[in-house]
Amino acid sequence: MSSLHHRHLAVSPDWLALYYRHPLEITHGEGRYVWDADGNRYLDFFGGILTTMTAHALPEVTKAVSEQAGRIIHSSTLYLNRTMIELAERIASLSGIPDARVFFTTSGTEANDTALLLATTYRRSNQILAMRNSYHGRSFSAVSITGNNAWSPTSLSPLQTLYVHGGVRTRGPYAHLSDAEFTAACVADLEDLLGHTRTPAALIAEPIQGVGGFTSPPDGLYGAFREVLDRHGILWISDEVQTGWGRSGEHFWGWQAHAQNGPPDILTFAKGIGNGMSIGGVVARAEVMNCLDANSISTFGGSPVTMAAGLANLSYLLEHDLQGNARRVGGLLIERLRAVGAGSERVREVRGRGLMIGVELVKPGTDEADPEAAAAVLEAAREGGLLIGKGGGHNTSVLRIAPPLSLAIPEAEEGAEILADALRAAG
Ligand code: PMP
């Protein structure tokens, strides 16, 4: 067992989540694998909560980081910085948002905070529409728009938040409806809600809910919402912290599955772009981005070493068509896991897109969430040499699979086999 386990108390308040009965100390990684302090090797199907976008220890990223670190490391927000400008230009042109501007932060939380700052200022309203079962980060404002109670420790919100139906397709009062009926019911619910409120500043939504258990609505739901929002001048913020960079295989951004009425007004990103280095950010059209009437700065946002990592990582992703790889290998992995699930009374549903796959567990023969089983499968998978995540609004009973996007077919097969064994071992 890692000797760091006891010393971890120094950094861990009681509410800081840690996986495994004997927490894992990861020492290094390569490709899709990581190693622990005891020398055990694991196939990594969670990539540090989706931060490892391309691969562990990708030589292109390592080289870019060390070369930049040898030149200069400081924060140069007050000065011109070529790496920041180049990455901003590339993200702006990939974003699909017209006249897009980019502001770099150091996390997804800070990106969403900034998006809320922009939207509430632009619209002069502190009301926010958010989705049930959502997760948007850990700051005071981000927890107050987080619909997943397990991750929202305070009710003292600086914002007035109204929660909307629709982020979860397979549970809740509309679950029995067809996709078209589900969408119509959620739109009617939103219209009804807007009839009872002042005008909110924005709707914020994850196209596929991450922490909430990789759940998503039917394609087009947020586009249908957009039509209603437009009538009221309400902005649409797409939280792409987990869904960005082609992870869903079919789309580069999650919002593109909901694009019938145009792109969102604001998009937030983080996690994978730095391949583990801390990059977050906001993209918005210039009019929205420039609505703040004050100086602002992010001391570390856009610093050259993280930007160099982002540029090298993004180039690798695009040059090697890792979005296409996520579609192909993810499709195969979902198929394999569905076959595994069909043989287990514990598996309620295998869902997902590309390399963002959720396996929802229940007590055998019921529809009841089974967090103990999820914890047991996580332990058994680790024993078998596979790291996965868990989440879900239903007492964290959803296994979450989100490997680096360069996952190879034999690795997908290896992971599916270990998971099948882990499900059997967990009983
Ligand atoms: N938004 C979403 C959708 C997320 O999944 C997360 C992190 N799990 C965040 C925001 C917050 O990002 P960070 O942890 O980088 O602050």
TrEMBL record:
Keyword set for this entry? Aminotransferase, Pyridoxal phosphate, Transferase
Q: Which domain of life is it from?
A: Bacteria
Keyword field contains Cell membrane: no
Give a yes or no for keyword Transferase in this entry: yes
Entry's Gene Ontology molecular function annotations: transaminase activity
So which cofactors does this thing need?
pyridoxal 5'-phosphate
* The enzyme's E.C. designation: 2.6.1.44
- Which CDD domains does the UniProt entry name for this protein? OAT_like (cd00610)
According to the UniProt entry, where is the signal peptide?
Answer: none
Q: What class of enzyme is it?
A: transferase
Its family remark reads:
Belongs to the class-III pyridoxal-phosphate-dependent aminotransferase family.
Subunit text = Homotetramer.
The identity of this protein, by name, is alanine--glyoxylate transaminase
Question: Whose protein is this, by species?
Answer: Streptomyces castrisilvae
